[in-house]
Amino acid sequence: MSIGKIIFFSGFLLIVIGALIHFTGVSNIFKDNPLDLKFTFKNTTFYFPIGTSIILSVMISFIIYIFKKVL
After folding, report:
1. Quick one: 21 and 38 in the same domain?
2. Can you give the pLDDT of all 71 residues of the chain as single tens digits?
């Protein structure tokens, strides 16, 4: 399979996944993660999603690991 086809199908897959997340409301899964840091000052709020970043990193690493084992 050529690199062009891989890039095309990867982009198409990302669009489909993004549309499914948007229209099904799955994006609220990580809404109240206790590992995310939220600082509120007088009129400023700083939100740093470190816990969500770690969870997504582990999930993506696992998916890549599975694909490497299968292929």
Report:
1. no
2. 678 888 888 888 889 888 887 788 766 666 777 888 889 998 999 988 888 888 889 988 998 888 788 76
CA–CA gap between residue 41 and residue 31 (Å, rounded) = 21
Residue 40 bridge partners (DSSP): 45
Bridge partners of 39? Answer: 46
CA distance 26 to 3: 31
Domain check: are 41 and 63 in the same one? yes
Same domain, 46 and 21: no
Distance CA 53, CA 59 (A): 10
Instruction: State if pTM tops 0.90.
Output: no
**Domain that includes residue 9, residue range:** 1-29
Do 69 and 38 have their domain in common?
yes
